[in-house]
Amino acid sequence: MKRTLIKDLDQHIDEQVTIQGWLHTLRDQKSMQFLIIRDRTGLVQVAHYKKGNLDLAKTISDLGTESALRITGKVVKNEIVKLGGLEIQLEDLLVENAAQVPLPFEPFGEYLPEQDFRLDWRYLDLRREVNQLLFEVQTTAVQAMREFWLQENFIEINSPKIMGAPSESGAELFSLPYFDTTAYLAQSPQFYKQMAMAAGFERVFEFGPVFRADPSFTSRHMTEFTGVDMEMSWIDSHEDVMRLTERWLAHTIQRVVEKHASEVETKLGLHLEAPMVPFPRISMAEAHKLLKEIGYKLPPEKKFDLDPGAERAIGAHFKEIQGHDYVFITDWPFASRPFYHMLHPEEPGLTRSFDLLGKGLELATGAQREHRYDVLKAQALEKGLSLEVIQDYLNYFRYGTPPHGGFGFGLSRFMMVLLDLPNIREAVYIFRGPTRLTP
Amino acid sequence: MKRTLIKDLDQHIDEQVTIQGWLHTLRDQKSMQFLIIRDRTGLVQVAHYKKGNLDLAKTISDLGTESALRITGKVVKNEIVKLGGLEIQLEDLLVENAAQVPLPFEPFGEYLPEQDFRLDWRYLDLRREVNQLLFEVQTTAVQAMREFWLQENFIEINSPKIMGAPSESGAELFSLPYFDTTAYLAQSPQFYKQMAMAAGFERVFEFGPVFRADPSFTSRHMTEFTGVDMEMSWIDSHEDVMRLTERWLAHTIQRVVEKHASEVETKLGLHLEAPMVPFPRISMAEAHKLLKEIGYKLPPEKKFDLDPGAERAIGAHFKEIQGHDYVFITDWPFASRPFYHMLHPEEPGLTRSFDLLGKGLELATGAQREHRYDVLKAQALEKGLSLEVIQDYLNYFRYGTPPHGGFGFGLSRFMMVLLDLPNIREAVYIFRGPTRLTP
Questions:
Q1: CA distance linking residue B170 with residue B167, whole number of Å
Q2: Are residues A150 and A76 part of one domain?
Q3: By its UniProt entry, which InterPro entries does this protein fall under (chains A, B) (predicted)?
């Protein structure tokens, strides 16, 4: 059986075709039935003259919207039909999977139920046009990310998500029974991508799940998300990482623009443009000064850090003065960074690190890593870590590990920012939070 | 600082360059020191005249092999040097990270320690040439897989690995405390890629970790591995899935051949060739007949199944008679398949399913899935499953889910087969087994 996609029907005028898709709407009139059928490529009207086949007319009348159908018929030109000026004259219809009636909600109805209910029926929610578009855009974006790295001679790795020891701090850590012992879920591939530097891979990237036992219920947190990670050797400082990062992201968005800009404009009312390179940079010290100038008050516990409001304010500032959506905040205090970030030799309270903001939201955290065994041990001790717990990691730095750095980047946060989505739960295929483990 | 890669040195004869890499070997002679330096792209000899700089000579004498170095010097032609007929006359050397002495083992020594010890020091083991090649080949292969699917309009998804209910059977399942409840690690993305079919995505693929609490210690099992999964809608039978699978795999190997065939030949002594399409197919019934003919005795508990020896025998048979490394075994008995495989309408004891063998090793399992809600429920009950536990999954089939099928494929098994590796522990970046959680 040869299927014709709806977008290609205009090449089959006056021919018999078979299409496959969902019953989008049904207008059941006195003598005629009009079925609007949807597949991934578009919509088409199918007309059925009831008296031609009364049994079939009965079947159609009983169909619930969103049923999965296979339809055979003749494509004819019909100027008065809005959907492409053509319709299919129904000859045969096979119900592949009838939708029960009523649906939990109408994905194409005028009023959408609240988010939590839509998440319960995520697959119906995903049938909405904007959601299909989102994952088409994401598919293009991740492929562009990899394409860029492959041109730069990166190696792709898949590191284990089950670990024998915590990867960073003990906070927000999931643990599990593992045969006769206890294992932990990776909070990032940090240690393993650095291991690739110790292995002489020089440049690696990874896409994979990241687990955080984070009890918060914000619009941007999840207990499991797709991390996009890279690490590169033989750098001089974090500036080398930032330079590659901005080119990488600009390339990625450029590819999305080429492929989806007009559809994004039509369906989301959003104008997409690749960002200019270089991205603006502001040091943490300057950022704190800027916040004072614009009157943003950081809570006292964020003395060495930023809070989400401050990030939004900084993002808005650079949007206003430079028209730029992306900003690097550099040189964070060691107090707010993990033990393995390298310190500035001339200012040991500061790290060679950065965050990347997109429209005021933290997308990535990066740094040059400390690769000198003794210095790294001292920094771990300063943070109060047990050297025993991280000994496997420390061992990576004993036998010739070059200077290196990299970043971790949240894919769904990027999709939120790129497509102006209000909540990460709308940006991810299936959301996981403290109280959401289904579907 | 501008780095020159070792492979590009011949374009810099008589120029001063800076290279970065590892001390591969050191010949410390009376008046001269010869350092062989390695980076990801090759080896080069660096010559140092000791009297030119006695301090530096001392530093070099103290260097352990595998130290990470930055070296500046002049590239000169030298016909007697085996490595490319050139060498670098040392001017400056910076020790980025000195290797402690002695190394746990010499990755480039003549005798390698046993596997388990090498896994303890995996990053040193990964410095070996064949391992670097392996992950370069894998990087090419996975990109080719995605490239193929993107040309066929697939969408990439990242499904959650933490689930509220077991994904398949309760066997070999890791569970973990999740806030106030219990969660499970995904044994496959099966349910979620089928959910994408219910969502109308039509064609999806995913690369992600798969977790199996499998206590076995064979050469082909791991408790965590990278699964390559796809699912496609509107198929007529499992034959549609197999046709796409064989083209996909042939394309993938073709890309590897184009990029790495000569290096694989040189370094592994292995001749790579893309397989012919179509792959041979044999039904399970025919396979059992064949095994009888060639005198292979299946253990009685494998009456509806195959064991690894049988798979090797079938693989060897097709290699002999057709010269083919890949074989589909089709139409497995329902007794040896999960509840969601679709039954043959004319032979309800058999499923519309297949395994793909590569050189006699199971690489993939695929099938057309049962998409009819009532039939699926009946099949689950027949397998003794609790409908309550799988209700979220069953719900996917209530509101218009088209016929569909797909496969799950083990990436490291494929690398084993492609590169003739004896053990999966040599084919994966970091191995996880019942007693191995480190590094």
A1: 8
A2: no
A3: Aa-tRNA-synt_II, aa-tRNA-synth_II, aa-tRNA-synth_II/BPL/LPL, Asp-tRNA_synthase_2, Asp/Asn-tRNA-synth_IIb, NA-bd_OB-fold, NA-bd_OB_tRNA
